[in-house]
Amino acid sequence: MAKVAFIGLGTMGYPMAGHLAKAGHEVCVYNRTLAKSEQWVAQFGHRLAETPADAARGAEFVMTCVGNDDDLYQVALGEEGALKGMSANAVLIDHTTASAEIARQLDSACRARQCGFLDAPVSGGQAGAENGALGIMVGGAAASFARAEPIIAVYAKATKHLGEAGSGQLTKMVNQICIAGLLQGLAEATHFLKRAGLDGDAVFDVIQHGAAGSWQMSNRHTTMLNDEYEFGFAVDWMRKDLSLVLDEARRNGARLPVTALVDQFYADVQNLGGGRWDTSSLLKRLEPGE
Questions:
Q1: The pTM is what?
Q2: How many Cβ atoms sit within 10 Å of the Cβ of residue 136?
Q3: Considering 172, 194, 240, 284, which one is annotated as catalytic?
Q4: Does domain 3-164 have CATH number 1.10.10.10?
Q5: Is 172 labeled as catalytic in the residue annotation?
Q6: Which of 16, 151, 236, 247 is 20 to 30 A from 285, comparing alpha carbons?
Q7: In whole angstroms, what is the distance from residue 269 CA to residue 161 CA?
Q8: Could you say which architecture CATH assigns to the domain 170-286?
């Protein structure tokens, strides 16, 4: 069993830290809102810290799962950031979906303190976090990954080491590019079948088992047909992720016309008041008055 710090108890981090506690690891948590840390401790036991540095002191592994690059910089490299409390040979494992550039910065800062670093963004949403069935894409030194893999496996269904620091974040960008295109196609297909007078449930019951099938189709077609979006991965979060994708594409020269277009479609959904709707709400911009 390991001594672990978990920093960031949001939709994803809260259950992920819970899996570590239930697996028998010694866990110390930190969250910017103290009440959330207190709630977690009341549910799972263990202890909380009032700063990231305090949470990280004595920990073998320090996990972060926060909102964006700025949040990550603050909890890792700020005046009371985790690195101020980490011991030599500890490993910082970042589960935030962030830029590849900040992953490289953190890797350099960790090396300077003789610590390991892994950028390890996740896929699978809230359900994946709660069920301990996340897909985790990892960049960083192979030795750090070998040490951390058994710990990460507590809340992962699949974990893959993909190369040097930044590789995990770049792979998460590939993931989001795929999802954006899939959801726009699913939205258009749903809109089309309704206009054609078809039974949506019957259509998807057939085609989800063929070449058109996907996780998004299997898990979102019913709610899309029922015009239900008050759940899931928010449009605001997807736009944050796609901004990272498009920024990286401008740096590496990749051409992403469909991704850029879907990003603007998500802006339309935000303008409809759907910033917190699930990403499958792309259908709403095709049927705004229905």
A1: 0.95
A2: 26
A3: 172
A4: no
A5: yes
A6: 247
A7: 35
A8: Orthogonal Bundle (1.10)
